[in-house]
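Sequence in, structure out.
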Amino acid sequence: MATILICDDERDIVNALDIYLCSEGYETCKALNGKEALQALSERDIDLVLLDVMMPVMDGIETMIKIREKYDVPVIFLSAKSEDNDKILGLNIGADDYVTKPFNLALVAARIKSNLRRYNMSKENHESEKLVIGGISLDDRAKQVKVDGDIVELTPKEFAILKLLMENPNKVFSNKEIYRRVWEEDPFGNESTVSVHIRHLREKTEVNPKEPRYIQAVWGQGYKIERRRQ
């Protein structure tokens, strides 16, 4: 079951949410201010945060900003303020939902369930959008490439070439076709530019660039990426 971080400076609210959510089958983690919440996030796997807005030491607004610098966890704001401007501010800085105090515990639990379901569906869709071939994974939305779990830095053109090849495993692309697809113009004799980018790609993605596992040259035809090659 999901772990919920409850952050509020009012102990009675924290304890009431703790008791209720535990009875609903959730695991909980408690914090009384933003600093404690950030510490909890750094130490535990948290699935959702209930975050009060008005708190000492570090308020919910500052805490929310810092959460979004490092974490993609869903956050529901808890606040006695019901004005639209406060809700808009909370949502604009990264909150996923907003519950106004005083609140019904069952309503909070329903909001938690709804946000977790939406977050998990989004996460599954995101995972399905990733391209993976052997030890190379390409995340187009994050514009990130990992090789055997380590992030590698690619230029935009290198990324685009790798994406093209990974979207079409085992298909051979000529230098001219790669150039047209990536540079979106006719090569006009610049086909050799593709070979230079391929060499750089191999240097960044292959254990031994001279004996590539993935990006293969097909003599006289172009390049392809092998779906499975050990």
